[in-house]
TrEMBL record:
Top-level taxon: Bacteria
Record protein name field: Peptidase S41
Origin species: Kozakia baliensis
SUPFAM superfamilies for the chain: ClpP/crotonase, PDZ domain-like
Region span, Disordered: 460-506
UniProt KW keywords: Hydrolase, Protease, Serine protease
Length: 506
C-alpha cells in the first residue's frame, strides 16, 4: 500500500486544534442491521471461512451500538457514537494515533498555519488527564512558566475531571484579552499551583536567534512548513552580524515536540556534508525510505552544540541523532523524549482524517530511539534538583515497541573536546532562578556556549553571554547575594555526573 500523505513527527497537537465531536441526530434503521447488510459485511460473509472472527466482531459492534441507542440514560446521536468508536479504535493503538472528525480536521489545518487564539500550549491526554507537552515560545503559556509534564486540573476553578481532551481545550480557549486561571499539578511541588494569564492571538515564531560574541545561537521551537527556510535565514543573519567571522553555533532544540519529517531532514542537511540523515521502515516495504545529505554544510564545518532535554521529541530527535551519529555536533543537556515513530495524516474524504503510526525511524547508525530517547554527550541539568527524567514516551500507555535490539545503543564517542570533563552537570546552589527573559540564568545554554567556545579555540569568559550585573540578578531574587559565576578554568569544577541512563534512551 503506497501512502500519499504528509508525514508527521510531533508528540501532540496544539491546544485548541481539536474540539468535541458534533452532536447531530441521525434517524435510521438498526445499526446492527446496517452493518450486517453493508458491502464490507457481505464481502466478509462471502468468505466466511476465512473471516468468521471478523464477521462475529462486526456483528457484536452493531449489537452494542443498538443497545446504547436504545438504553443509554440520554439520547445520543449515531454520529456521536460512531465518531467516538472510531477514535477509540485508532487511539487505542498507541498514544500518537487518532481519528479526527471533519470539524476537528478543519480546525487542525487552520492552526497548523501558525496563527490561532489561545494560550500557546501543546497538550496531550494521559490516563484521563490533561498533560502539558510543551509551551510555545513567546506565548502566554511560555511567559507564565508552564512546563512539560505539568498536569492541568482546573480552568477558572472548575475541574476538568471526566472531560475529554477536546472539552478541556475548549474551556481553555476564549476571546483574546480575557484572563484565565489554570490549576497545575507539578512534580515536586507540594501544593497545586494557580497560574493566571491573558489569552491572545498566538503567532508561532518557530525560529529565533541571537549572537553572543562570535557564537551564534538558533532556537527552533517546532518543525513546521517553513522551519528550514527560517533557520537558514537566521544563520545568514548571524553570520552577517558577526562580520563573516562566526566561530560556532548553538542549536537549541529543547522543548521542541517535533513536527514535519521533511523539515527535520532539511535542517539536518544544512549541517551534514554527506551520508545518511534518517531512514523509516514500516509494515509495507514500498514505504521504506532513506534520506541522504546532499553535500551542503552552511556553516563550513564550524563547531556546533545541540541543546536537548526531555521535551525534545520526534523531529528534534531526528536532527539531534543525525548530528550525533555523524560526530557533527556535541549534544548537551539531558535525555530526549524518545518518540521514534512516524505518523501519516490520511484524509478520509468528507469525514475528517486519521493520524496513524505507519513507521519507525532510525538514525544514521541504525538505532531506533523509540521509548529510549537520545542521551546527550555531556549531561547538564537545568537545575540542581532536576533529575533529568520527567515524562517521556516510555511513561505513556500502550506505546509501540522498540525492535532495534543492540543497535538502539548510542555509539561511543571518543572525540569530545577536553572541556567536556570540566562541565558541571548541575548549577551551583546559588545559581539565579531561571528566567526566560534573562539568558544569563539559563545554565544549560551557558554550558553549551562554553563548549562551543572551547571547540572554536576562543578565549574563555566568566560566562559567554552578555548578562545583567550579578547584583541585578540577585536583587530579582530578593537578596543582595551575588551568584557564583566560576570561570571555565576553575579547578573546583567537577566532571559531569554519569548515570546508567546515559546510553540511548516524551
Amino acid at each position: 500500500m503506497k501512502l500519499r500523505t504528509g508525514l508527521l513527527l510531533g508528540t501532540a497537537f496544539l491546544a485548541g486544534i481539536t474540539t468535541g465531536p458534533s452532536i447531530e441526530h441521525m434517524a435510521g434503521p438498526s445499526l446492527g442491521r446496517m452493518f450486517s447488510s453493508s458491502a464490507f459485511a457481505r464481502e466478509i460473509a462471502a468468505d466466511a471461512n476465512n473471516h468468521s472472527d471478523t464477521l462475529r466482531l462486526l456483528t457484536l459492534f452493531g449489537t452494542v451500538l443498538d443497545l446504547v441507542r436504545a438504553e443509554y440514560v440520554e439520547p445520543v446521536s449515531d454520529k456521536d457514537l460512531i465518531n467516538n468508536a472510531l477514535d477509540g479504535m485508532v487511539s487505542g493503538l498507541d498514544p500518537h494515533s487518532s481519528y479526527m472528525n471533519e470539524k476537528q480536521y478543519k480546525e487542525m489545518q487552520i492552526q497548523i498555519s501558525g496563527k490561532f487564539g489561545g494560550l500557546g500550549v501543546q497538550v496531550q491526554e494521559q490516563n484521563g488527564h490533561v498533560r502539558v507537552v510543551s509551551p510555545i515560545d513567546g506565548t502566554p503559556a511560555s511567559r507564565a512558566g508552564l512546563k512539560p509534564g505539568d498536569f492541568i486540573t482546573e480552568v477558572d476553578g472548575k475541574s476538568l475531571e471526566g472531560m475529554t481532551l477536546d472539552q478541556a481545550v475548549t474551556k481553555m480557549r476564549g476571546d483574546p484579552g480575557t484572563k484565565i486561571t489554570l490549576t497545575i499539578i507539578r512534580a515536586k511541588e507540594p501544593k497545586p499551583l494557580k497560574i493566571t494569564m491573558t489569552r491572545e492571538i498566538v503567532h508561532v515564531q518557530v525560529v529565533r536567534s541571537e549572537l553572543y560574541d562570535k557564537v551564534g545561537y538558533i532556537r527552533i521551537s517546532e518543525f513546521d512548513d517553513d522551519t528550514e527556510t527560517a533557520m537558514h535565514a537566521a544563520y545568514d543573519k548571524l553570520r552577517a552580524k558577526a562580520g563573516g567571522k562566526l566561530a560556532g553555533l548553538v542549536l537549541d532544540l529543547r522543548l521542541n515536540p517535533g513536527g514535519k519529517l521533511d523539515q527535520a531532514i532539511s535542517v539536518s542537511n544544512d549541517f551534514i556534508p554527506e551520508g545518511e540523515i534518517v531512514s523509516i521502515r514500516g509494515r509495507h516495504a514500498e514505504n521504506n525510505r532513506r534520506w541522504d545529505a546532499k553535500g551542503t554544510d552552511i556553516t563550513n564545518h564550524l563547531p556546533i552544540v545541540v541543546l536537548i532535554d526531555g521535551g525534545s521529541a520526534s523531529a528534534s530527535e531526528i536532527v539531534a541523532g543525525a548530528l550525533q551519529d555523524h560526530r557533527r555536533a556535541v549534544l548537551v543537556g539531558v535525555k530526549s523524549f524518545g518518540k521514534g515513530s512516524v505518523q501519516s495524516l490520511i484524509p478520509v474524504p468528507g469525514n475528517g482524517a486519521v493520524r496513524l503510526t505507519t513507521a519507525r525511524y532510525y538514525t544514521p547508525s541504525g538505532r531506533s530511539i523509540q521509548g529510549l530517547g537520545i542521551a546527550p554527550d555531556i549531561v547538564v541539568k537545568e537545575s540542581k534538583d532536576d533529575d533529568g527524567i520527567g515524562y517521556r514516551e516510555s511513561d505513556l500507555s500502550h506505546i509501540i515497541t522498540n525492535i532495534g535490539g543492540n543497535k538502539s545503543k548510542a555509539p561511543i564517542r571518543t572525540d569530545l573536546p577536553s572541556i567536556a570533563s570540566s562541565i558541571p552537570s548541575a548549577p551551583p546552589d546559588n545559581w539565579p532562578h531561571f528566567d526566560i527573559a534573562k539568558p544569563a540564568t539559563d545554565f544549560q545554554l551557558q554550558q553549551g556556549l562554553r563548549v562551543v567556545r572551547a571547540m572554536a579555540n576562543l578565549p574563555p569568559e566568566s560566562y559567554p553571554l552578555s548578562q545583567p550585573p550579578a547584583d541585578k540578578i540577585a536583587s530579582d531574587k530578593g537578596t543582595t547575594e551575588k551568584p557564583a559565576i566560576v570561570p571555565p578554568s576553575h579547578p573546583d569544577h567537577t566532571p559531569p555526573e554519569r548515570t546508567p541512563n546515559d546510553r540511548v534512551h516524551h
